Amino acid sequence: MDPQTRPESRLAELGLELPDVATPLAAYLPAARTGNLVFTAGQLPLRMGELITTGVVGSAVNPDEAVLCAQQSALNALAAVKAEVGDLSSVRRVVKVTVYVASAPHFTGQAQVANGASELLGDVFGDAGRHARSAVGVAALPLDAPVEVELLVEVA
Length: 156
Fold this sequence. Notes:
Blueprint: H1 7-13, E1 31-34, E2 37-40, E3 46-47, E4 50-51, H2 63-85, E5 91-102, H3 110-125, E6 132-138, E7 147-155
Parallel strand pairs: 5-6
Antiparallel strand pairs: 1-2, 2-7, 3-4, 5-7
Helix pairs in contact: 2-3
């Protein structure tokens, strides 16, 4: 693979880098592999061990902040994938993304929030980053996080 097309190179071009894998908050693994599939646990918008913001989207958190939270959560999920497989270049395809958005009752922009994760994955993996997706509004998430992201990826 051309070094310029490596996922880590693409992240650097975007001014981003993979964080350390977030320590699980309970009894689970950050990622689990079966065959050529890697499933991540739900990843919160943690940066350097701290949530970048807290609260419900459409109330305490505005949609633009939530988009950044979805992006950070996706970065954390990619870190979990890399820890499981050793190199993001082994990702053949992002298959499915699930984005949970802690939503105020009137908030209906979950799909736009989820674009923070989806667009990042497309920027990092190109066509291999195009995926099926669910964007789900929920009443609350762990630690009062506004967003949580899960990935399912196919690896070599």
